[in-house]
Amino acid sequence: MDSQMMTGNLAAAWGARLADVDYIPAFPITPQTEIVEALAKWCERGELAARFVSMDSEHSMMTAAGAAEVTGARVFTATSSQGLLHAFEVLYSISGWRAPLVLVNVSRALAAPITLESDHNDVLAARDAGFLQIHAETCQEVLDSILMAYRIAEDERVMLPVIVNLDGFTLSFTREPVTVPDPDTVRRYLPPFRPSHLGFTASSPHALGVAVIGGTPYAYFRHQVHLAAQNALDVHREAAESFQALFGRRYDLVEGYRLDDAEDVLVMTNAGASTGKAAVDLARAQGKRVGLLRLRVIRPWPAEAIRQALRGRRAVAVLDQNLAPGQGGILYQEVAACVYHETARPRALCSFIGGLGGQNLSAGEFHAVFEQTAQAGVTGRGCGPVLLYSAEEHREMTQLQMVAAGSVKREW
Amino acid sequence: MVAVRFHGRGGQGAKTASRILGTAAFISGYVAQDAPIYGAERRGAPVAAFTRFGREPIRERGAIAHPDVIVVADASLLDDAVAHVLDGVTGQTVLFVNSSLSADLLRTHLSLPEQVTVRDVTGIALQQLGAREAISALLGAVAARLVGLAWEPVRSAIDGELRDLGLAEPVIERNLTVARQCYDSVEPATLPQGTAQAVGAASLHQPTYEPPTKGTARIAAAGNSVLRETGGWRTFRPVLIPDKCNGCWLCFVYCPDGVITMNQEDRPVVDYDHCKGCQICVHECPTHALIAEREQEGGVAWTAK
What is the ipTM of this complex? Predict the structure, then answer.
């Protein structure tokens, strides 16, 4: 297998191309644009036999995506940040229709203030939308996860849409070697999409997403979405086994890094986990027994896998690259909830907030995280949410505030 | 606590009647609560409204499952299973029906509780107010009398509610006069003395996954709305005067519910089981061959099959 240098965005486009999608409604937004540009080019050249349509907004884009999917077409689309939020109400409809399309989200922090760089408040806002969520760490994982996403989504035991998430800039515009799977092997991995409850036949109309009043039918259908999402835990394992057999790479719900004898564990997601692994290596070199748990699948929530990974640890730190104002880290809450019933639960649970809007996570900050976590493990008292923000960053911020307030005179 | 449930059709004022009762109880010094429930708002469709009042804080919300009093604004609802008018009725429940028929006549095909009061509120409204559907103040007054509220707070509540709806002063005055007549025409009822019953744990069903063909909010049976007869929504029915019809098909085109078909002589045939009585066909007919005829209770009126 030959690999080539490509960005996370191009890897995402390759995922859609190899999945042989039928329909791509698109609306560009930084840092996602390269995905739809690549797909538009391939459709134009006839290298991808899909219908590519530029829409007038992300709301229209998601509506078109869902509508096409329920006719029985395999649909791919991509967005980011404000675009995801603009499409938001449609997400819930699509999962309610049980329309298993794949949406790539290129994470970008939300306005205001406006920025272009990554954090996860965009994708995690959609955590309750009934979409499954796979968060990728590498460009290779972006491509592979899209193939797995279609396989899982279209399974009759699941039949739910999937968001595959990659970080803006740190993955979307970052080139690294990616192996492009052989299309014939992908066809074996991804059978044609033949949903039993969807499709379009003029002579036998059916209605989806119908009105239900009185609560009971609504509750039943929402329960079904939940049960379908939970089924995805098993279906993901099967999809991972089959993927490994065909392509040699293995992806599980969570990924442990140097966990075997780790006393303290750092929990992270997405591309930031690479930096976290480097920090683990550095700390290990200094004799600290630390490891990292990367959450790859966020929905369904892999509670059992997390419990197993964190059982018996001294202390656990969740580094959230998101912030729920007035609450703290989003994933910290979910990790805390799922280890509560574990009898051998960690002695201390710490919450750190870092990397907001692409904010740098320095080696020194990781060092501080490991120190505070170890301390919490000794005392048995967790900490946080600790807002990671260095003294050096604060000096830079103070300068900017002076410029913004007009207290710095231009000297030319 | 006293629980009063109102049943009516969209446009008849069941909701306003429940507000009048709620406000009247509130002015009388009770703790009170009122709320309506309806689907996508449609004139003629069954609606319900609920009023609770008492001396203690009210710990119930939403629909009233065990009413002390039921006020029915339209007798045709008694025949409509979807309206659930008689749900939760016991031998002690007080029932009021707006109908031109007698309680005995209603009893011939329905199992009704002992205390049934029937008044032709619609007839009174038509005669004195000149409008068939303006019966909210009248129903509110009747309900307030049945539960034993004094007239003055009722008068004040009607005045407030109708003013809030933007009605003109003379209209409000006429409503108050007729409402007083209705109030005086009924006697306070003997309300059930309910005591809270101990309740066992519900038997819970563990939801299990079902294939998407079943587990998706999806209707594959085309055209099943024919199963839901909506003929009872009418207050007036379109009737054809064949001699005047020029066979232009405009009624067929304009009918929003598709209940008009054309026969071989190009004359409209109305499906009265489903016609909601919107009168658009009557309005559009260029030769006035379709006229609106008032539905007569016990006569040609629609009854659910």
Answer: 0.90
- What count of Cα atoms within 13 Å lies in the side-chain half-sphere of residue A302? 24
Give the pLDDT confidence of A102-131 residue by residue, as tens digits.
999 999 999 999 999 999 999 999 999 999
Average pLDDT over residues A372-397: 96
Burial class, A191, CB count within 10 angstroms (exposed 0-12 / middle 13-18 / buried 19+): exposed
Separation of CA B291 from chain center: 24
Using the Cβ of B196 and the Cβ atoms of chain A, whether some distance falls under 8 Å is answered with: no
Contact yes or no for A391/A311 (Cβ under 8 A): no
CATH 3.40.50.280 at A3-247, yes or no: no
Kindly list the residues of chain A whose beta carbon comes within 8 Å of any beta carbon in chain B: 96-98, 156-157, 159, 195-198, 204-213, 217, 220-221, 223-224, 227-228, 231
pLDDT digits (tens, 9 = 90+) for B40-78: 667 788 899 999 999 999 999 999 999 999 999 988 888
**Mutation test of the interface with chain A: which of B205, B216, B219, B225, choosing the one with the most A Cβ atoms within 10 A?**
B216
Cis peptide bond upstream of A191, omega within 30: no
**What secondary structure letter does DSSP report for B200?**
P
With an 8 Å Cβ cutoff, are B220 and A212 in contact? no
Model pLDDT, residue A23: 98
Token duo for residue B197: 């019953």
Domain ranges of chain A: 3-247, 254-394
Q: Where do the domains of chain B lie, and which CATH numbers do they carry?
A: 2-185 (3.40.920.10), 227-294 (3.30.70.20)
Q: Please check whether residue B72 is in contact with residue B85, taking contact to mean a CB–CB distance below 8 angstroms.
A: yes
Query: Which architecture, in CATH terms, is A254-394?
Result: 3-Layer(aba) Sandwich (3.40)
Rounded to whole angstroms, how far apart are CA atoms B106 and B82? Answer: 19
| pLDDT above 60 (res B105) | yes
Rounded to a whole number of angstroms, the distance from the CA of B299 to the nearest CA of chain A is 33
Q: What is the mean pLDDT of residues A290-313?
A: 98
Q: Are A221 and B217 within 8 A, CB to CB? A: yes
Cβ contact (<8 Å) for A227 and B209? Answer: yes
Reduced to 3 states, what is the DSSP secondary structure of residue B292? strand
| C-alpha to C-alpha distance for B67 and B69, rounded to whole angstroms | 5
**In contact, A148 and A251? CB cutoff 8 Å:** yes
Write down the mean pLDDT value for chain B: 90
C-alpha distance across the termini of chain A, in Å: 58
User: Which amino acid is present at B161?
Assistant: E
Given pLDDT bands bounded at 50, 70 and 90, which one contains residue B300? very low
Name residues whose C-beta falls within 8 Å of residue B39's C-beta, 6 or more positions apart in sequence.
Answer: A211, A213, B45
- The mean pLDDT value for B171-176 works out to 94
pTM, 2 dp: 0.90
